[in-house]
Design goal:
Elements (H helix, E strand, L loop, with lengths): L2 H44 L7 H11 L2 H15 L5 H4 L4 H19 L5 H8 L13 H8 L1 H15 L5 H17 L6 H26 L6
Length: 223
């Protein structure tokens, strides 16, 4: 036996390990691609709210919520495919669609209830109930990044409401975004993405406040 023959097995285990890891990653990416497609479809569906009355938006939300049956099944598939204890090894694969799913969940919650969706409700909607870091879970930072998309969408909605002659919803949106901003100021943000999102909320709030100011000086809403 040559020296090379004796050392080769020491490296072969890594090739087997790499092949197995790649196979798992590809299976996970297959599910997350489906997840991304479903989320994009839901986002497109909810965009219609910018041209609907408040009552029609509620009907839109009711129809959109049927998509969560599909999302729950896809997350169940992910749970099955991610090896136990290796959540943080692969979680980059589903970060974007999860953050978008949270954003869209928060949008529906606002349309229906006028409030911020809780992390617990997000978990229920997506069928990921565990809060243990050792299990597949909804990451807190993903939740925060997801809901940070809400002020931007609502500031845009406020402008479109005025175009439709609805002068009351911008007032409610302004109050909500102001409360949202005040709540976020209490957080000691160490995540760069979250800090950038927080900076953007300042401009969203300013935009909504400008809409409300214009309505007031034109006498279209009462003080």
């Amino acid at each position: 036996m040559t020296d090379s023959d004796s050392t080769t097995p020491s490296f072969l285990w890594y090739q087997e390990y790499a092949n197995k890891n790649q196979s798992v990653k590809e299976e996970i990416e297959g599910v997350t691609q489906e997840l991304s497609n479903v989320v994009r479809g839901l986002e497109q569906q909810l965009q219609k709210a910018h041209h609907l009355s408040a009552e029609q938006t509620l009907e839109l939300c009711e129809a959109a919520k049927e998509t969560f049956d599909v999302l729950r099944q896809l997350y169940a598939n992910l749970v099955d495919k991610v090896p136990q204890g290796e959540y943080f090894r692969y979680n980059f694969c589903w970060k974007w669609p999860t953050q978008q799913a949270i954003f869209l969940s928060s949008l529906i919650e606002y349309y229906e209830c006028g409030q911020l969706i809780s992390l617990e409700k997000v978990r229920t909607l997506l069928g990921v109930e565990s809060d243990s870091l050792s299990d597949f879970h909804i990451d807190v930072e993903d939740y925060l990044i997801g809901v940070c998309g809400l002020p931007s969408e609502l500031s845009r909605l406020a402008v479109n409401c005025v175009s439709m002659g609805d002068f009351e919803r911008p007032i409610a949106i302004s109050r909500f975004v102001a409360d949202f901003f005040s709540g976020f100021k209490l957080l000691n943000l160490k995540n760069d993405s979250l800090r950038r999102k927080f900076d953007a909320i300042k401009y969203n709030l300013k935009s909504v406040e400008q809409v409300v100011y214009d309505l007031r000086i034109r006498g279209l809403v009462k003080d």
